[in-house]
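Hello again,

I reread your note about wanting to compare the complex against the isolated chains. To keep things tidy I'm splitting this into two emails, and this first one only covers the full assembly. Below are the input lines as submitted, including protein chains and any nucleic acid or small-molecule components. They are followed by the predicted structure of everything together. The single-chain runs will come separately.
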Amino acid sequence: MSAVQEQPASPPTPHPRGAVAVAVQQVSRVFGGRGGDVVALQDVDLTVAAGEFVSLIGPSGCGKSTLLRLVADLDEPTAGTVRVFGRSAREARLARDYGIAFQQAGLLPWRTVRANVELPLALAGTGRAGRRERADELLALVGLADVADRHPDQLSGGMQQRVAIARALAESPSLLLMDEPFGALDEMTREHLQAQLLRICAETRAAVVFVTHSIPEAVFLSDRVVVMSARPGRVRQVVPVTLDRSGATTPGSEPHDDAGDDLRNDAAFFTSVAAVRDALHGGGAAGRGVDVR
Amino acid sequence: MSRAARTDPRRAAGGAAGGLVRQVLPPVVLLVALVGTWHAVVVLGDVPPFVLPGPAAIARKLTTYLDPITSAALVTGRNAAVGLVVGAALGVLLAVVAAVVRLVDVLAEPVVAALAVVPVVALAPVLYAMYGAASEQARVIVAALAVFVPVYVTTLRGLRQVRPVHRDLMRALAATPVQAARTTTIPTAVPFVFTGLRMASSLAVISAIVAEYFGGPRSGIGSFITTAAAGSDYAQAWAYVLGGIVVGLVFYAVTATAEHLATRRAGA
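Full-complex prediction:
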């Protein structure tokens, strides 16, 4: 996988990994339990193009995290197929095709920040020097070069989450899976990290599947917002977002919070937020568990 | 281990002297007060030595018999140490097997529960019969058995504490089982192993001493406590008890330090 990937990303398309990053077809997931079966997902179709940023949003229990776990092959569908870059989810996982970040940073507390970022490379058998170089590069990318030798318990929650994102990017994946990575953070840190994530995605040209329950977050980040409904989990509507993000994605090591603020005050931003909110609320009691700020 | 002291080295260094005094002074004052009261009660109350010998008498015996007490402490300490190492090794080994093979866990559970309930020292007379009255072997075995249970239980528990997010991470990173064990399972379990060791270290010393009460060669602290008490030399018996306390404290200090070092970075 590495030969194709490590070419410097050049702005014009086509994407080196083909047109489709994730193809989910007619996927269902049923959890068997003592109180009967629970249908977490039913007949879900989803296609994510290479380089595209797609958010999954919906009320608690709509299966958005389950869908992400199916793409990551952390769980298997009861029916249907999941393909990642043309191969099965399992093959893609074993080939380390994606990087992943969870709601909890999930750093290893006994390793330094740098060693945590190096972890995926160490498991893949990258040499010591190469690992270190890449880790330092990634820590600079997330603005944490100065804490590389600290341990995770010496970092704030937001900093830990940035380390986790750096770790997810370690092998330059063409697909980034993120399960509410900013869910546990305060609003200020959250917006700051959103702006950083936009910039990182513009630089790496990775496709992203992003689970969230914040409408503004989904709109701010995404090319498309997939609105799901609960019990059974289905895709209710896909809302395309057209924002001019060129200001917020200018490459550079400094975060562009000001550009992000401009974007958040844009009329198109409010229009899309309203559209997603309508999609969530259309059809009864869907609003539960959704952050509608 | 305080979080603040770890995260702020300057404060830890600056307050170290003051903190040490504050930590050490109160127990020392209490100990001095207790010994003083004891001495006063024995002297003023004219307590006969077979009821309670005074600290002065015990101190005299301690200095007189310092060499035999030291060599007895070394014998008991050696028995306890060998027992601790053997028992801990067996405990960790079997816990690892039980964590990997579910069947072993199921089979071992009632046996371990039985071992935990039986006072292992009670086996001493039987073991003396098996290994001969001149052998230290029985005492080592008793100590090892006493150590085995807590180490096995805590290690097995530790091996099952891997956080779900770490398990997901290992799977997402396509880690092999050996890689996953090395990067998450073992580091998560290590602090638990050391907690078990700390608990077991005191048990090892207690078991080694008490096993000596039941016979065997006249060599360790426990043997001499019984002989001194049988000869009505209670001050001497107490002097040997002090030797036993020193052995126990050394074991505790060593394992507690090891535990502290092992758990320093384990907090999630």
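For quick reference: Residues 61 and 236 of chain B are 6 Å apart (CA to CA).

B.
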